[in-house]
Amino acid sequence: MKVLVINAGSSSLKYKLIDMDNENVMAKGLCERIGLDQSRLKHTPGDKDTVIIEKDMPNHGVAIKLVLGALTDKNHGVISDMSEISAVGHRVVHGGEFFSSSVLITDEVKKAVTECNPLAPLHNPANLTGIAACEEAMPGVPNVGVFDTAFHQTMPPASFMYGIPYEYYEKYKIRKYGFHGTSHNYVAHRAAELCGKPIEELKIITCHLGNGSSIAAVKNGKVVDTSMGFTPLDGLVMGTRSGSIDPAIIPFLMNNEGLTIEEVDAILNKKSGVLGISGVSSDFRDLDAAAAEGNKRALLALKMFRHSVQGYIGRYASIMGGVDVVTFAGGVGENGPDVRADVLAGQEFMGIRIDAEKNNVKGVEAEISADNARVKVFVIPTDEELTIARDTKKIIENK
Fold first, then answer.
1. How many CB atoms lie within 10 A of CB 328?
2. Which of 83, 98, 137, 256 has the fewest CB atoms within 10 Å around its CB?
3. Contact yes or no for 77/51 (Cβ under 8 A)
4. How far apart are CA 3 and CA 143, in angstroms?
């Protein structure tokens, strides 16, 4: 079975074609600047060189057709025709309370995803556009929705409710949903495999650290808490997002700066985090370089980020009554040995100790805990596309 994985953004579309008989990636690529000038497709067939195709893509429908053309092209294609694609798996950011697992996409599912549009206005409409484009280009081929929020739906009400009048939950479903669920799901299960134990017997803290960052507490295979909330703005200090702040800051800024709610929202989502603190960049590599040159604000931004990660690790160990495994994924988590070392410094009281030599790795799967440490620590490069493909295969085989 060959599964095409689609991740549609507002002006982009990532894809992978995976042969599920051996889970090999046959091709992958990215459509950039959909609906904008100078749109192009970067297509990489297997282990061959990337092909750049510059062509106007006014919408996602055109982008999907261009992708399918690249996959079947005589020179850089990997399949003879589209009939070899058995199913399409779609990343959908927000499933609200409707979905606690991946589902076969039907008209009813699309209606539910549409109802969640106000909860993810930048993402869900693009996801729906990608689904519609695939349905048009490949009629009869089943589509599966895999939701970023689904893995977190096991959280108990004490974790996901906010301390605001209950009527707002009933009326608007204002609650913590959590995000990066596909990544947390993959990493938690992979950590259990590496430990040689059932996930149902482990207390795992998964750290997905990048420009957008979140942490999840996975106890006995179920998420009991996670750092992102009603939106991806909540939780850790991130690249451009503020993370958790005193809510009173919002009306204070509006009153004293004469800002609209839309302007404050833009500040908190796009101008805050380590970018706002450092004044340098939202890229942690730039911050490292600036801090090494003595930039105090860049150093402060890095310290704030690491402090926020430490706080959640301690909090979640307390909530779960201990921790057996800590994992690092995402661009910073996978490629930041200094970040990992700083975050876990002083955690020996919880049984967490890392080996400096083992920790000197980037972008590869590795155990970095000290030999005699009670808590296992792993670097696990996330593979959201493979998780989506696996869920898609399972649903198609069981429908």
1. 30
2. 256
3. no
4. 10
Question: Mind telling me the catalytic residues?
Answer: 148
List Cα–Cα distances, 274 to 64, 83, 156, 197, 211, in angstroms: 35, 47, 31, 37, 9
Compute the distance between CA of residue 312 and CA of residue 91 in angstroms, rounded to an integer: 27
Q: What is the pTM assigned to this prediction?
A: 0.90
Tokens for 84? 């070899």
Query: Is 14 a known ligand-binding residue?
Result: yes
Q: Is 393 annotated as a binding residue?
A: no
CA distance 337 to 344: 11
- At 119 the pLDDT is 85
Positive or negative: CA dihedral 119, 121, 122, 126: positive
Query: Residue 149 burial by CB count (10 A; 0-12/13-18/19+): exposed, middle or buried?
Result: buried
**Over the stretch 140-167, which tens digit does the pLDDT of each residue have?**
999 999 999 999 999 999 999 999 999 9
Instruction: Look up residue 273 and give its DSSP letter.
Output: H
Nearest to 103 by CA among 87, 126, 84, 83: 87
**Parallel/antiparallel/unpaired status of strands 325-329 and 376-379:** parallel
160 belongs to an annotated ligand binding site: no
Helix 107-115 vs helix 124-137: crossing angle, to nearest 10? 160
